[in-house]
Amino acid sequence: MASCGSRCEGVSLRIRAVIFDLGGVVLGSPLHAIAAYERELGIPAGAVNRVVADTGAEGAWARLERGLIGLTAFIPAFEIECAAAGFAIDARVMMERIGAESQPRPAMLTAIRTLRARGLRVAALTNNWSEDGREDGPRALRGHFDAFFESSALGLQKPDPRIYEHACAALAIAPEEVVFLDDIGRNLKTARALGMATIKVDTPEQALAELARLLGIPGWPLGDHNDQDIEIG
């Protein structure tokens, strides 16, 4: 295995890269925004995610994340799917709530800087959607990462094994040399099957403590929070 030099002191020798999901990991959770919107409307908890799961790869959500449709087409299509499931939503409002929730978590940005300073490759691997070429929102975080992999650009979405394999190939690393952080169990299951070490993110503090133990970095994870005032559009 290639060495990353003295900067990797205290880092597990088998790990060369850390790959982060964005929403619910580096950013606030879309799942929290959706749950709050469901409560506001008085519809059953988990109803929106059941529509996403039940409609599968050909559903509006999956097609949005694979870049097959944009937000303009997604909104009426997803509203029709929800209506067929027995409840009504305003999909535009829901997506606005998700956007408002998607603010950076300062501890995660601090951790990403720390990992890169120690010589590890750090990448984002996100299921996302195109917003008519806009470069604000989560895309504004590109500069924090060595590589930035988007489902809407690749035409693949987690948990499809091919998107993980693409990320590893682009980083020139083996899955066994990766730690992958995500907040959704099925995405982690595929990563583990490929050989990655995985961390399920419940809170930034919990996840970064697990990452520090896994990497063998003493006296870490949180460091100072110089990113407290960072916002993205």
Helical element count?
10
What profile does the largest beta sheet have?
5 strands, parallel
The CATH H-level homologous superfamily of the largest domain? HAD superfamily/HAD-like
Give the percentage of residues in beta strands.
5-15%
Low-confidence stretches: 1-10, 223-233
Number of domain modules: 2
Provide the CATH top-level class of the largest domain.
Alpha Beta
Count of DSSP strands: 5
Strand order of the largest sheet: 3-2-1-4-5
- Strand pairing plus helix content: what structural class? alpha/beta
**Known CATH architecture of the largest domain:** 3-Layer(aba) Sandwich
Rg of Cα set = 18 Å
C-alpha end-to-end distance: 40 Å
- The shape is globular
What is the succession of H and E elements?
Answer: EHHHHHHEEHHEHEH
Mean pLDDT: 89
Remind me, CATH topology of the largest domain?
Rossmann fold
Helix percentage: 40-55%
Describe this structure in words.
- The chain starts with 16 loop residues before the first strand and ends in an 18-residue tail after the last helix.
- Strand 4, helix 9 and strand 5 form a beta-alpha-beta unit.
- The chain is of the alpha/beta class.
- Helix content is 43%, strand content 10%.
- It folds into two domains: 6-28 and 104-215, 3-Layer(aba) Sandwich (Rossmann fold); 30-101, Orthogonal Bundle (DNA polymerase, domain 1), CATH 1.10.150.240.
Write the layout of secondary structure elements.
Elements (H helix, E strand, L loop, with lengths): L16 E4 L9 H12 L5 H9 L4 H6 L5 H14 L6 H11 L4 H12 L3 E6 L20 E4 H4 L6 H11 L6 E5 L2 H10 L2 E4 L3 H12 L18
Parallel strand pairs: 1-2, 1-4, 2-3, 4-5
Helix pairs in contact: 1-5
